[in-house]
Amino acid sequence: MLEINNLHAGIDGKEILKGLTLKIGTGEVHAIMGPNGSGKSTLANVLAGRPKYQATSGTVTYQGKDLLALPAEERAREGVFLAMQYPVEIPGVNNIYFLKAALNAVRKHQGLEELDAMEFLQLAREKMKLVELDEAFMSRSVNEGFSGGEKKRNEIFQMAVLDPKLAILDETDSGLDIDALRIVAQGVNALRSEKHSVLVITHYQRLLKYLVPDFVHVLADGRIVKSGGKELAEELEQKGYEWIEEEVAAAR
Amino acid sequence: MTSVLEDRSTIAPVHIDGEPERVRRIREQAAERFNTLGWPTTRSEDWKYTSLTSLTNIDWKSDQRQPDGEDPASPFGDQPVAELMFVNGALHANRSALANEHPGIRVMPIGEAMDLESFQQHFARYADYEKHALAALNTAMWQDGAYIEIAPGTQVEGFIHLLYFGGGTAEHPVISHYRNLIVAGRGSQITVVESFYGRGIYFTNTVTEIVAGDGAVIDHYKFEDESLDAFHIGTVQIHQERSSSVTSRTIATGGGLVRNVINAALTGEGASLSMEGLFVLSGKQHVDNHTVIDHVAPHCDSVELFKGILDENARGIFDGRIIVEPDAVKTNSRQTNKNLLLSETAIIDSKPSLEIHNDDVKCNHGSTIGQLDEEALFYLRARGIGAEEARNLLVYAFASEIVERMKVDAVRENAGRALFARMPKRMERRSESR
């Protein structure tokens, strides 16, 4: 599904990812954990194509395509979804209008028939239940006046509707209470299948209790320094990140 | 066909058949006033952002024939309860017979209203031709326009539409002066939509006086979708009595050089006013919005919101003044101007101002100038929406605060259409320039 090879990237000329290599197979759930400043969000944003972030060297191959060569909207249409850490409020853009336009842009690109208003509403209603969002949210402006938890649930709702092949969750768990955390995990788990891959980026292990990953990687100073199974997340939770940093320093 | 401004700076008043003595006298005074004042120049504070040189250099002709090309058509079809259509200064079609069957409704060409009591009571009492040259020019020169009178207690469902179509060419530039009077009696309710369209080079100079009687509710919309080579100078003068409620909306999407003067006087206790404006400009369009809200009586509310969207080399001006007179205690007033600049060469001058003459008021004002939110743009694109569509969505979203508040469905849809009609052009030009 996704192959990142020796990726160097950063923002405003400052290098943050310093040779990151990662391979995500179809149907796999990977978690990337790491301390603040290790490059977690940079990775998410580089993959989604946020303009400020530049890849300086290395390659990212997504389903055989050079992902970095595609503009953000093309990546989305190809099935890459980024659940954002700070979903932006867009006053005046109606939630349902926006999501229908997005879904139909994706469907058109994938050679599928566009949904009409009724079909879309039916789909949206079904997915809203999954993330326990009230239907009243649909008629409001995108994220406007939403609480932190509602914004994150709206991200997962959008993900459920757009049905991406590769979902990237950028610290979706931050700022969530235990109920919201459970709902978010429920939304992501519903997407899990042998056709969908998920990359969960997080600082804490708590989301991973509900959303059990197949692989866990530790990101430190712009590189993956350790990989393992789900038990690595538990180890990190108990011991913190310091021992990893020490290990890395010792290996140099 | 006559050349209106013989040496382009002095005028002789126009007179129409059956004109009462008072109207004759007003026209003569107004002509004299214009000849004394002359065309405004950028030396005057009121006109410092807008030069009329390009307008006064043209030898305007008055010619009421229909311009060549397609027949002007109303965007509203048969939805208005009454419609008057004017072409190049003269009445072209009158669809008001049905509405006039109602004893409380009068919709007619203004020339037919001159003997009515209400006309005599209100005509030319509010738009100040002593001070303002263009109002004086209009008062002296008007040939046609609309008269609307709603009897006390009459609620008009739906809306009355006034359509103005102009057309001219470089060889034959046409000038039109329209004069309108809208009088809403005590406790009456009315929605009036004025829309301006046209082809080629022409100049529309229009004055609409609006009188809201005690407790009257008036919704006034003005759509300016003139040709990009057209000149438009318009005055909307609102006079509000006790507990009246007026909403004024001015939507400018067209016109090469546009000057909007929108003034309101709240003269009766408890009156409320919502004055809104939206200007969506590109190319070399120049739109100058000049508003004065005069709080004369106590306990009145006014909310003013003007939004500008400017692309390419467009220039916009918001010059808004709120005056709170010494007697106008407990005034509640808010004035806001927000602007969105889509290019580095577009210019906006924003000049909100408050002039408060008593200390028992709640007033605030502010203005903002910004660009499209890059974060929002990325958010939309990251969901699969193309860059141009995302940009248009955000531009429309900025305008929607004004558009979505339009109460009449047909009017709101028309505003949406007018906005979208301007947006794709911008898109095409962008992709060409790449």
List keywords for this structure.
A: 252 residues, alpha/beta, Rossmann fold, six-stranded mixed β-sheet, four-stranded antiparallel β-sheet, 9 helices, 12 strands, 38% helix, 29% strand, B: alpha/beta, nine-stranded mixed β-sheet, 8 helices, 21% helix, globular, disordered C terminus
Question: How would you describe this protein?
Answer:
The complex is a heterodimer of chains A (252) and B (434). The model of chain A has no long low-confidence stretch (mean pLDDT 92). Chain A has one domain (2-251): Rossmann fold (3-Layer(aba) Sandwich). The two termini of chain A are 31 Å apart. Chain A is of the alpha/beta class. Chain A has helices at 40-48, 72-77, 95-109, 117-130, 148-162, 178-191, 207-210, 230-239, 242-251; strands spanning 2-11, 14-24, 29-33, 53-62, 65-66, 80-83, 90-94, 141-142, 166-170, 197-202, 215-220, 223-228. Chain B has 434 residues and is of the alpha/beta class. Chain B has eight helices and 21 strands. In chain B, α6 (374-381) crosses α7 (387-403). The chains are: A alpha/beta (252), B alpha/beta (434). Chain A binds chain B through residues 48-51, 71-73, 75-77, 81-82, 84, 87-88, 90-93, 98-99, 101-103, 105-106, 109, 141-142, 158, 162, and chain B through 373-376, 378-387, 389-390, 393-394, 396-401.
